[in-house]
Amino acid sequence: MSRGDDALVVAAAGPLSTIQDAGRWGHLRNGVPPAGAMDMIALAAANLLVGNAPGAAAIEFTLAGDTLECAAESARVALAGEAPAFLGDTAMAPWRSFTMRRGERLRIGALKRGARGYVAVAGGFATPDPLGSRATHLRSGLGGGALRPGDRLALARGIAPAGGEVALDPAELPYLDGAIRVVLGPQDDRFTAAGIATFLSGTYTVTADADRMGYRLDGPEIEHLDGFNTISDSIVTGSIQVPGTRKPIVLMADRQTTGGYPKIATTATASLPTLAQLKPGDRLSFVAVDVAAARALLAEQVTRLGRIATNLRPVSRDPRDLPSEILLAHNLIDGVVGPDA
Questions:
Q1: Distance CA 114, CA 100 (A)
Q2: Fewer CB within a 10 Å sphere, N or C end of the chain?
Q3: What distance in Å separates the CA atoms of residue 3 and residue 159, rounded to the nearest whole number?
Q4: What is the DSSP string of 63-93?
Q5: DSSP string, 237-275
Q6: In sequence order, what are the beta bridge partners of 75?
Q7: pLDDT tens, 200-256?
Q8: Cα-flanking dihedrals φ and ψ of residue 240, to 5°?
Q9: What would you measure as the largest C-alpha separation in the chain, in angstroms?
Q10: pLDDT score recorded for residue 232
Q11: Confidence of residue 330 (pLDDT cuts 50, 70, 90)
């Protein structure tokens, strides 16, 4: 059970942190984008470590994390992402769960690789859920905004669940290596054969103009067949537009619902988590697959995540929870015994 004041309090905020879940689906016809986590694999990993459903709401942080204070009796949390973290003065490894107690602070530093990390809490957050989702869409403010110092993130439960802590091996997470898989279209007929060949053979760089809405890429110019304006139609997460600059734009979780630039390709859903971890200066290339192959890649990801969920490994008990008689039984000493003692 949770009291109304049980929360994680943001003591210090990172560059860009938001509450995100699996997304706000079913409202595109009304112009409402889904938002949701950029990296669904890392979101699922954090949630699995604390016993939540894979798409439950968690904190998504960008480049560096936040300082969070526990304002509940206790809370079991997990960090997904290669970032240093300290619970008080104790270093805490990522990719495992651990328990915070009232008044303790968790400090999360800068990611050593990748662009986004996630913090999940057992039972999930009880933040507002407009239109059935807790996901934050930054441009509209739906679901809230970027986290700020003093924000109280309400918890669905105010005490950590029973049972030991668990961990997973991040090497087992089903990210796709190599080129970003795409399905050509729906408007690949608006490009010349040479333009499509350039898109699929070129190497592109993520520019500084990259955020949750989309990534502008720099690289070889892609040739249109007959101009770059089309009648606006639907946009999906992973749509790749080519405007008049002839450089691609990959649209991400906070993208608009319609657009009028021709879309040369659509990112396979299984490649979206890989894209989500790219930051300005990172390089990428594209490879075309058909719809059947894209679906098979996603199905394999889901299967592998399911295996991880059933094979979480227990980790050693938190030394703060060991009773004094166990500590004394280990013949602890408080000095240094030299070779001549």
A1: 26
A2: C
A3: 10
A4: SB--EEEEESSEEEEEEESS--EEETTEEE-
A5: TTEEE--TT---EEE-TT--SEE-S-EEEEE-GGGHHHH
A6: 100
A7: 999 999 999 999 999 999 999 999 998 887 888 899 999 999 999 999 999 999 999
A8: -120, 105
A9: 88
A10: 85
A11: very low
The residue type at 336? V
pLDDT, one tens digit per residue, over 246-284 is 999 999 999 999 988 999 999 999 999 999 999 999 999
As a whole number of angstroms, the distance between CA 216 and CA 207 comes to 6
Residue ranges and CATH numbers for the domains of the chain are 7-172 (no CATH), 180-297 (2.40.100.10)
Q: Which two tokens stand for residue 101?
A: 């107690």
- Residue 100's identity, in one-letter code, is M
pLDDT in tens, 99-142: 999 999 999 999 999 999 999 999 999 999 999 999 999 999 99
Q: Which two tokens stand for residue 237?
A: 């997460």
CA within 13 Å, CB half, 85: 28
Q: How far apart are CA 297 and CA 110, in angstroms?
A: 31
Q: What b-and-e string marks burial along 311-340, b requiring 16 or more CB atoms within 10 Å of the CB?
A: ebeeeeeeeeeeeeeeeeeeeeeeeeeeee
DSSP labels for 100-139?
A: EETT-EEEE-B-SSSSEEEEEETT-B----GGG----BTT
Give the residue among 12, 117, 29, 53 at the shortest CA–CA distance from 306. Answer: 53
Close Cβ partners of 237 (under 8 Å, ≥ 6 residues apart): 34, 251, 252, 253, 255, 267, 272
